[in-house]
Design the sequence.
């Protein structure tokens, strides 16, 4: 069995894809888990002319850099031409092709532990809580502590009862 | 893509070209999902043009790990996972750019997928051991050659016959490596199928060639291609097979403009052929073998026993030395299996005996010394003694 690797970009003009890579996981608030589409993850900033970037996710800020990959990465798309698959015999014969649709040469890599942002306004905060995900790590990893600490501080700082428009916040804290 | 975008989707360009003192919102695309059909392949810079110019192919059976082949090399494909979150941001396509008049305030870099890892390539030796088995199912013989076209072509079932495309479908190696493999098995393409010639047939045509050489008083170091092919055709061999015989037993020393040329008999291949022929029945006493062998080898070829290295082994039984056929070309190409068979054949090998049976082993990134270290135990009784290799 053979799978041909094609390139539809033509004459090697493969468009470059971007990668934003960070440690851990980004988790949407439970109310948004089923509708991630168009949901903001965070804000990517380039504060100076250097290749240093910040990525603000919720009330976490990550600092990272743009790195050139030692080896480029091709983005391949698997294309199946299996129009006679229902025939049942030798389904592996239904031809598959891989199409090169892009190339990755750089990524913006955030490999530092996230820094908590504690000086932002409550309006902005609520916006973030409403709409943006948070970064977590698996149990046993050190960031878990940070998360716990953050819960504690913010639940004290924001008393939902004093807030006229507290519905979203309740969603988050429940 | 959706027809109405809520915001302008900036693509990879917006992220990679982000200006100092500016920012961009990163969001999930409206088509965000697992997108299992998107695969990342990490590879050397030098391989990128190969892929982009569509010169690579993945090969393998459904139950095998696929390999990636360029024209000349074979690579294993390994999936390397990551525990990081890798957000993939594609370039904005044309439709998205239509919405570009909204101003930069709304620019969003949209993530299509979080990648679980990427494929990486490791250069490996081609896996061609099956080639010998496949081609040995149905070697080309005198019977078949004399059958000619008595049976309707379309009606005969093609058992054990393989076309080039069948071989590339079944075997994991690059085109160049597969051609080398076919060449080393002395295979030839007959009516579209890659075949080996059966021993009797091969012996027949070589003897015919040597016979013609004597009859026509040709020099074995200056065989005229056209004359040889014509003579063999007159003897009843097809031109294709006659050319094959030339390629197998001779080397081209001079090429004419028209593709014709002058060939010289390859001493080693002729000597090996006759040695195999004699030893087909089993082991023989060395002296009897050598006498018979020298008688068979044509005049002008110096048949010294050394020329048979890698083809025969000798052993002492009592006072007599015996010789038997043991050909490197019949051994597996993977080092592990090769050494296992070698040490089953003999517990201990001197270097001069072992070398012809291992020098063709090639594993990318590993030298022969490395292979010996990995698969053998080397003992050397004294500093100037010959090292002896045994199984590890």
Sequence:
């Amino acid at each position: 069995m053979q799978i041909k690797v094609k390139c539809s970009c033509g004459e090697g003009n493969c468009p470059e894809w971007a990668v934003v890579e960070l440690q851990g996981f980004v988790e949407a608030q439970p109310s948004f888990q089923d509708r991630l589409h168009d949901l903001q993850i965070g804000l990517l900033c380039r504060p100076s002319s250097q290749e240093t970037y910040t990525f603000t996710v919720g009330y976490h800020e990550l600092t990272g850099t743009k790195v050139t990959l030692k080896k480029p990465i091709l983005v391949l798309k698997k294309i199946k031409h299996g129009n006679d698959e229902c025939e049942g015999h030798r389904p592996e014969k239904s031809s598959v092709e891989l199409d090169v649709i892009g190339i990755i040469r750089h990524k913006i890599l955030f490999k530092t532990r996230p820094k908590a942002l504690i000086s932002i306004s409550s309006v902005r905060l609520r916006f973030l809580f409403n709409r943006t995900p948070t970064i977590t790590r698996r149990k046993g990893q050190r960031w878990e502590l940070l998360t716990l600490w953050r819960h504690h501080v913010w639940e004290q700082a924001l008393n939902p009862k004093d807030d006229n428009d507290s519905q979203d916040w309740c969603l988050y804290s429940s | 893509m959706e027809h109405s975008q809520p915001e302008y989707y900036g693509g990879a360009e917006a992220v990679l070209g982000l200006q100092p003192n500016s920012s961009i919102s990163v969001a999930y695309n409206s088509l965000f999902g697992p997108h299992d059909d998107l695969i990342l392949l990490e590879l050397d810079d030098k391989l990128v043009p190969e892929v982009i110019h569509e010169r690579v192919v993945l090969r393998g059976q459904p139950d095998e790990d696929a390999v990636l082949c360029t024209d000349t090399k074979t690579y294993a494909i390994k999936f390397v996972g990551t525990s990081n979150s890798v957000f993939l941001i594609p370039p904005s396509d044309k439709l998205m750019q239509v919405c570009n008049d909204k101003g930069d305030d709304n620019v969003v870099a949209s993530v299509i997928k979080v990648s679980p890892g990427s494929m990486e390539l490791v250069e490996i030796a081609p896996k061609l051991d099956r080639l010998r088995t496949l081609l040995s199912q149905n070697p080309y013989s005198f019977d078949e050659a004399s059958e000619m076209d008595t049976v309707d072509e379309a009606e005969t079932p093609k058992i054990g016959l393989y076309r080039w495309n069948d071989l590339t479908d079944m075997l994991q190696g690059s085109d160049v490596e597969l051609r080398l493999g076919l060449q080393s098995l002395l295979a030839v393409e007959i009516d579209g199928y890659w075949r080996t010639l059966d021993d009797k047939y091969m012996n027949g045509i070589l003897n015919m060639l040597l016979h013609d050489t004597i009859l026509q008083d040709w020099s074995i170091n200056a065989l005229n291609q056209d004359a040889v092919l014509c003579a063999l055709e007159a003897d009843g061999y097809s031109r294709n097979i006659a050319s094959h015989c030339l390629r197998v037993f001779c080397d081209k020393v001079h090429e004419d403009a028209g593709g014709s040329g002058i060939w010289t008999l390859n001493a080693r291949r002729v000597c090996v052929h006759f040695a195999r022929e004699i030893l087909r029945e089993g082991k023989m006493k060395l002296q009897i073998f050598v006498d018979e062998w020298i008688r068979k080898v044509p005049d002008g070829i110096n048949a010294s026993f050394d020329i048979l290295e890698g083809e025969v082994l000798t052993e002492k039984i009592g006072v007599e030395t015996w010789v038997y056929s043991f050909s490197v070309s019949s051994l597996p190409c993977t080092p592990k299996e090769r050494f296992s068979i070698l040490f089953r054949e003999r517990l201990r090998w001197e270097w001069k005996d072992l070398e012809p049976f291992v020098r063709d082993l090639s594993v990318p990134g590993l030298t022969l010394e490395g292979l010996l270290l990995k698969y053998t135990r080397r003992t050397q009784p004294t500093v100037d003694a010959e090292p002896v290799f045994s199984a590890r």
Summary: The first helix of chain A runs from residue 122 to 131. Strands of chain A lie at 2-7, 18-22, 25-27, 40-46, 52-57, 60-80, 96-110, 115-116, 134-136. Chain A touches chain B through 59 residues (CB under 8 Å). DSSP finds three helices and nine strands in chain A.
